[in-house]
Amino acid sequence: MNPVRKQRLLIIVGALAGVALATGLLLYAISENLNLFYTPQQVAEGEAPLGQRMRVGGLVVEGSVRRDQDTLENQFDLTDGIGTFTVYYTGILPDLFREGQGIVANGTLVSTTRFEATEVLAKHDEQYMPPEVMEALQRAGHPAASEPGPEPEEGVSY
Question: Which residue, 36, 48, 93, 128, has fewest beta-carbon neighbours within 10 Å?
Fold first, then answer.
């Protein structure tokens, strides 16, 4: 093989290997940072993968909030009217957190009945409910989803 052709072939093979490596690293990074949303019904039915980071949302069940007096450990049940599971959270709950309200929690699903949250987000006014939670409640036929609230104020993120 001609030395010039051999050099060009090595450059092309090296470039292709670099592109393949960059693509592989990009896909790995994207898969590690996916944070999918699941409803309580999907969690209870086993559709949500165990041990993976995710977002879950629903309504806090009335009378289900349990707080440890000595630590910042909190437990509460989350439902969409069909499925229910328990959320465990260590930390200070948001000021707007209360029973019967829609919330979104970020964390890891340990089992179909236990979700360990790293962050709990409560709605920011009396009427607004996150779109994902509203859709989940509507699919479940929950009465809290009958009246959609106003859209969030511009510049306010959830």
Answer: 36
Residues 6+ away with beta carbon under 8 Å from 120: 87, 89, 91, 93, 94, 97, 103, 104, 105, 106
Least confident residue range of 46-60, 121-135, 142-156: 142-156
Closest CA to 128 of 38, 74, 39, 57: 57
Alpha carbons 59 and 75: distance in angstroms, whole number? 14
Judgement on whether residues 4 and 78 belong to the same structural domain of the protein? no
| Same domain (yes/no): 17, 69 | no
- CB within 8 Å of 92: residues ≥ 6 apart: 72
User: 9 and 21 in one domain?
Assistant: yes
Q: Are residues 26 and 40 in the same domain?
A: no
pTM: 0.64
